[in-house]
Design brief:
Strands 6-5-4-3-2-1-14 form a seven-stranded antiparallel sheet, covered by helices on one side. Strands 7-8-9-10-11-12-13 form a seven-stranded antiparallel sheet. It has four helices and 14 strands. It is of the alpha+beta class and 242 residues long. Strand 9 (156-162) and strand 10 (168-175) form a beta hairpin. The protein has one domain: outer membrane lipoprotein receptor (LolB), chain A. It is globular and about 60 Å long. The longest helix is centred in the middle third of the chain and has 18 residues, at 94-111.
Length: 242
């Protein structure tokens, strides 16, 4: 009777949450189908951004005034990158194209999370449950395949999704650029514009090395230092006509 009883116990054990389902539920709550055909614009610090998506087609842009007073307009789309200065297209070295493209893409990526967590290069792993500020969360790690993962394919992310609201309330990430490092972000000022949820973030770091998946514990213990705020201003959402 021992073996049948063992199978019975194992069969009754609770099934581990699925990382893909957790992400799908979060995307649905944050905007769902609204992301797929939309024009989003916002201001971050002194730069204006615009993100147009029509299925797999995209056009991301940023506009700003440089130190000389010239108006710079960067455009990243499926076909590549281009820069214009005072409405005149200029040649940009390949290394600079990659850097500018990564910069534009990173801002749009963070502004519209968690939508991009279902990109083809994304690999998801469930890390378990935790509690932050008395609220229950599921923790999911995201890594990237080299093919299709972009310049930052070696970066690692951890996301905290509320178990009941399904919102993405915290995230941590490590990066190798500029000497490397890691950050932890807390979502604040959540609001809905045009059917899409937008959030600002408080940006934290640790003075001592810490594993990404343990940032929640360090945050709860008050061991993190706030280094900046990421505030999206003048957010607007438009629809693409069929």
């Amino acid at each position: 009777m021992l073996v049948p009883m063992l199978f019975f116990i194992l069969g009754c054990s609770e099934k581990q949450p699925d990382a893909q389902q957790i992400v799908d539920e979060a995307i649905a709550v944050h905007g769902g189908e609204k992301y797929k055909k939309s024009v989003v614009s916002f201001r971050l610090r002194d730069r204006q951004y615009r993100a147009l998506r029509d299925g797999d087609a995209f056009v991301y842009s940023r506009t700003f005034t440089d130190s000389t007073g010239a108006r710079v307009h960067d455009v990243l789309q499926n076909s590549g990158f281009r820069r214009s200065i005072n409405d005149t297209t200029v040649a940009v070295p390949e290394d600079k194209q990659k850097a500018y493209s990564a910069s534009v893409n990173a801002v749009v990526y963070f502004a519209q999370l968690p939508y991009y967590l279902n990109d083809a290069a994304v690999q998801k792993k469930y890390l378990g449950e935790t509690t932050i500020a008395g609220e229950p969360y599921n923790k999911v790690e995201v890594t990237f395949q080299q093919e299709g993962g972009g310049e930052g394919y070696e970066d690692v992310y951890v996301y905290w999704f509320h178990q009941k609201r399904h919102t993405m309330d915290y995230l941590a990430y490590s990066f190798k650029e500029n000497g490397g490092g890691s950050r932890f972000r807390k979502a604040v000022n959540a609001r809905e514009v045009g059917g899409i949820r937008f959030q600002d973030y408080l940006n934290y770091t640790s003075k001592t090395p810490i594993k990404l998946e343990e940032y929640d514990k360090a945050f709860e213990a008050g061991k993190l230092e706030q280094v900046s705020e990421i505030n999206l201003e003048e957010v607007k959402v438009g629809e693409i006509n069929p």
